[in-house]
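User: I'm putting together notes for a lab meeting next week and I want to include a structural view of one of the chains we've been expressing. I don't have a solved structure, so I'd like a prediction I can at least talk through. The sequence is below, exactly as it appears in our construct file.
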Amino acid sequence: MQQISEELFVGLCRKIGTPKQVAIRRDVMDIAEIVKNRVRECHEMTEILSGSRREGFRFKDSDADCMYCINSYRVIWNLSQIRYYKKETIIICDGSDSPPGFTLLQLAELGSEIKGLFVTMSGKHYISSSIFREVMCSVIHPNSIVHGPCSSGTMVTGGEYDDAICFRSDFWPPSVYSWKERCLVHSWPNMHVVHDIVRSGCHFVAIGHKLGNHEDSEWRVSFSVAEHKLVRCMSHCQFLTYGLLKLFLKEFVNTKLNEEDKFLCSYHMKTAVFWVAQQNTISNWCPQNLMECFWVCFKLILKWVYEGVCPNFFIPENNMFLNYVHQNKQQKTFDILNTVYEMGIASFLHIFSNESVAIHIPRHEYIILNEDTLISETELDMELFREVHKNEAICTLDLHQCMKALQAIEQVIHLPLTPYHTIMLRKHAETIFQRMAFILHNVYTNKVENKRMYTIDKISRYMLKLTAEFGCVSDMLYLAMYYYKTYRYLKALTVLKFTKARLNEQNVMYQNIDENKYIKTVGGQSWSKKMRHALAWNISLFNRICYIKELVPEQQSKILFKQPVSFIPHFLMVSLLDILCNIHIDMKEALVALFNLQHLVYCVHKELGTLGDISWQLLGICQQVTGKHGDALVSYVISLTQIPTLRLQWATIIRILTILFYSYRNQNTSHEA
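Assistant: Thanks for the context. Below is the predicted structure for the 673-residue chain, given as structure tokens.
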């Protein structure tokens, strides 16, 4: 059993993540959340990331839930706590007539902004959770639908979201102080984590208990922040056990049930790990014991389903099955779990080796559990850079917001930081400098005297040169864009020539990489050096900033679809700039560059996939500016047939109509002549 557990541990590390991979995901999201909240123009709400992605999972269906806490309100548990607040509107908890884990929220005084959201009972005003849900449903994302306490829907990027607008209490609920004592007795989590959790308080989300006396008015006490801290303090073996339970539920149990019969969820799996970890049921959470760890948690869940009772980890009196479990559902789920239980622990190997679960369990006589053997240096670097790229999402619309972002980054630098935090902050700073350079030019061009414009231009160039020197290889393209925008075509071509040479090196990490050459060139070096010498991003263009005028219709098209950023592959941007600059310097070179771009797009058009629309669109733009309108028309039409990844349809149609209009006008002019 020990060797089987070790083999399973290795398989799970490869599917779910090694300790370093999980740490990267968490730390990068931590710093992104901190900076984003400090930059946020509207301080009425604080964004709190949650969900399985926040915990460190990266399954295909891992959710990225968000809680938005209304900062102008604070919930208190007794009137003595009111002395801590001067500006905030006070809400008083009244859980005397509510089930455990639920409460009524009474307004201490009726503010104008809360009118219409309250109900009156016994002469007191209470915020109605049902009215609140309906009114707030589309505040964050328009056209959302109510799903439990959340507003749900599909983002324009394709992913699903669950947002919950909530209230916060800075105080720990009096009914939960027994949890603190329980932690002290069982030594899990440690007292440092317990004190941190208690200081963090709790939140209230707009959903009542279905069996409560005031379902439409009650609010559920949420320990989402506390639960995240508990997941963070899990050992990696505990975290993998939690991940294994999630996989078992999704890929095995739920596949055998109809949609209406499913009631178990990931939250119940997490709760089981919390209880087992605290009750010291397992003496040693380690790779050699992983199967037993899973088996103990599985048996606890089986017991809960059999009894119809799943005690909340913080408020055990709150039975989380009470709202959802009916005898028929309960029996069907129990039968599935009990069948597995009767087959014994060995049956799980067959389940977890199943192709749908896809845990590739190695079969070796000797298993090496050293993390350096589980993941290569290149894979770890790709993990870090991918997470940084995905979480770099500060929306800076103007110079004021850019300055706020830089101030936020400066403040965060003084906090205790991990190397992953530092790389994320560095990427944030680079992006802000790049945006500021173009915003400055756009705002002041033709609006100030030449001397001041010279100073502004000098500052913009300095910021872009700074990011070109300390950023990744593809960041040099922003400097080339700026030179093109300011009519310095020869300088732009010089930068492009150097950038093309760097991007064509086989050690550069983009989508594919020659691992041997990468390691030979930058292996063992700092991540900063790896970024400068061997990393290329897609080029991100914030759609409300004009970078080069030829791409304005595409950016406007994406704004119509509520997409703030356009991502263009760096090799396409290189070709576009090469052609645009050479039109003003050497038309023959421009046509050579156009031929090379046509050859690239035509040769690999079947392999373009999600890049199809932007590839044909940029080819059409280049053909159009070089006077090949017929070819451009064909490229635009093909672009419309591609997967609409970048939402360029509006721009494509406008470009097609423009070509047809001028073609028609020229024909009429020639006939009249």
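A couple of points you could mention at the meeting. The radius of gyration is 29 Å. The chain has a mean pLDDT of 90.

User: Perfect, that's what I needed.
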